[in-house]
Amino acid sequence: xxxxxxxxxxxxxxxxISRPGYPPALFDAVEDLxxxxxxxxxxxxVGAGTGIATRLLRERGARxxxxxxxxxxxxxLHRGLPDVPLVRGSGDALPLAGxxxxxxxxxxxxxxxxxxxxxxxxxxxxxxxxxxxxxWNVSDAEVPWIAAQDERIRRHAHDGAHxxxxxxxxxxxxxDGVRFAERRLPxxxxxxxxxHLDNLATHSVFRVLGEDRTARFLADExxxxxxxxxxxxxxxxxxxxxxxxxxx
Length: 248
Prior knowledge:
Layout: H1 3-6, H2 12-18, H3 24-34, E1 42-46, H4 52-59, E2 63-67, H5 71-80, E3 86-87, E4 101-107, H6 115-125, E5 126-139, H7 144-157, E6 178-192, H8 193-201, H9 204-207, H10 211-228, E7 233-247
């Protein structure tokens, strides 16, 4: 787990409030590709952060254990979900018994792991017939204003805007007997400009950029976006990139 990954600790509350959740269609697709209902399943949510996915999994009836390495993120998760079992740890060395999970999920977090370590760990913890589900909310760069924003961030920070980490696929690491399938699920949310900018500021590119440079960028970005959304309401467009590997 890198310092960049742990940089979210400093903005845990802002992260929890401003980051997008996930559409119901995602959890329908997870159930379909994992070939099991979430209700009653033993689910381990790794890199759970503040519990955005954890909360939604539990609402679908899953019996969730959250795994999170960052103390600030873990504390925020525990405040919001005090009855969810929480384990401090990372996917590279899961502090869990073998065969103890029906489903292991990584929401926005698989790319922070060492796949040579995290995949064998997931397969160890999964029960026979279990599944590993990885997903990312990726902003839709086919939307003109999002593509323009990405380019501004690349110029300012020499990095991408929205963490399109879906290329961190596990297929090259999968042993015999494990198969994977993919889905792409478009969705949108409408938020205030303040929420949109708060969300941007929680991304790792800005966490390592420094407060002054981040503040200057966000002030300029506010002015740019008001030309597109003069009412101050931003229509964010995402696609959830989902990968499910089944332990057959």
